[in-house]
Amino acid sequence: MPGCVPPRRVGTGPDCGPGMLHHLLAGPSGSTATAVASAGSTPSTLNSDKSNTYDNNVVQRIIGAKAGRPASTAVEAPAGAAVPAVQQVEVDEGSEGQRLDNFLIKLLKGVPKTHVYRVIRSGEVRVNKGRAAADTRLAIGDLVRVPPVRMADPSAVPPAPAREFPVVFEDEHLIAINKPAGVAVHGGSGVSSGVIEQLRQARPTARFLELVHRLDKETSGLLLIAKKRSALVALQEQFRSRETGKTYAALVVGAWPASRKVIDVPLHKFLTGEGERRVRAVLRQAQDDRALRQAQGDREPEGRRSITLVRIAQAYAGFTLLDVTIKTGRTHQIRVHLAHEGHPIAGDEKYGDFAVNKALARGEAVKGVRFERMFLHARRLRFEHPASGEAIELEAPLPAECSSFLQTLPS
Questions:
Q1: Given Cys at both, which of 5, 48, 260, 402 links 136, Cβ 3.0 to 4.6 Å?
Q2: Are the C-beta atoms of 317 and 409 separated by less than 8 Å?
Q3: Alpha carbon 206 to its chain's center
């Protein structure tokens, strides 16, 4: 498989003792892998390059546990939650090559990631009856033992609405859609569902649908979705290696200087006091000062190098339409870089000019014309097809609200 290194086979560790997992029940329906019974099964080898033997400290903790104290770390949940069960899940083609932690996070929907990593570290999760690390890569036929984890009753959670999106390109390996603004790519952080959940509901027979990359909720444009794990791995490797070409249309406030073509400013991601994710530009002097503080024991993370290429597409009175290409894929990179240069994106509620945004929404910036979204659109995407290697270049035209607004702007 592209992007995957064949794992080394190692021996299996001991099975769980009576003090740990001892109930075998059927797993929940609808999982991407197949639940099978373990009675009488023959131990097989673990497809991982991690050791799966007991660590002495772990064994001592289990042996030395106080009487009456269960060794299992099954996650508790409020009354009314689904009854937990031990699952024996066989890895199928859709999960081949996936990391163990990501496999479990997908299988145990709604369970906090901290709990997933806790049961992996405790040794209660087994692969082919042996201990396994979070980064273990799974192979077809591997048997994953999942401990009892209490989850919210799925019937209490309304399903995502089924929705198809405008398709720009589709074959048996991938889909490229033109995502509208205002739709998150996935659920979470107060969002019940996004593109991927809604698309899965619209295509219930699809065996595999996964996001290749992400776009901000407020950003419209080209979004890739893999229909096979092999395609997902190959495409994500292209994104990581910066072998793709992504160009955005961005309307910024003010007159962009024609000489400003490259923005090479590090970006630092942080959380606000309210827990909101934000990004800020880090000046070179600040980078040098931070490096000095780190040498003195200050562990505050430094900004990551981020490069954005800018070209003027059209100049308007009070605004400039830019073609923006990113050479690195940092969170909110375009939005923060352009705002850092003193020309924020029109309608950007996080990093924009709030007075201008308000005037745009009220129809005051351009008399009688309201504009109520962020003007950032992923309009062009270039990549190699994950199966054929053919060069693919896709384009998505500007949404109607964006092109209509441009027509009202005086040059």
A1: 48
A2: yes
A3: 20
Given a cut of 90, whether residue 52 has pLDDT beyond it is no
Chain centroid offset of residue 95 CA: 16
Q: Is the model's pLDDT at 37 over the cut of 60?
A: no
Residue 83 has pLDDT above 90, yes or no: no
Phi and psi of 56, rounded to 5°? -55, -40
Mean pLDDT of the chain: 80
**Domain coordinates of the chain in residue numbers?**
1-157, 158-240, 245-408
Amino acid letter, residue 400: A
Whether the per-residue pLDDT at 152 is higher than 70: the answer is no
Mean predicted confidence (pLDDT) in 165-187: 96
Active site residue 216: yes
Asked if residues 313 and 379 have their Cβ atoms less than 8 Å apart, the reply is: no
Res. 14: pLDDT tops 60:
no
Q: Is the pLDDT of residue 32 over 90?
A: no
| Sequence-distant (≥ 6) Cβ neighbours of residue 355 within 8 angstroms | none
CATH topology of domain 1-157: 3.10.290
Measure the CA–CA gap between 409 and 411, rounded to whole angstroms.
6
Mean pLDDT, residues 216-227: 97
Which one from 216, 298, 323, 353 is the annotated catalytic residue?
216
Q: What are phi and psi of 93, to 5 degrees?
A: -60, -35
Query: What count of residues does the chain have?
Result: 411
**Confidence category of residue 401, pLDDT binned at 50, 70, 90:** very high
Q: Give the pLDDT band of residue 92 (cuts 50, 70, 90).
A: confident
CB 326 within 8 A of CB 333: yes
Residue 179, pLDDT score = 98
Q: Which residues lie across from 376 on neighbouring strands?
A: 250
Class assignment of domain 158-240?
alpha beta
Better-predicted residue by pLDDT, 338 or 8: 338
Angle between the N-to-C axes of helices 113-122 and 100-107, in degrees from 0 to 180, rounded to the nearest 10: 130
Same fold across 158-240 and 245-408: yes
DSSP single-letter state for residue 373: S
Look up residue 101 and give its amino acid: D
The CATH class of the 245-408 domain is alpha beta
CA 38 to chain centre: 33
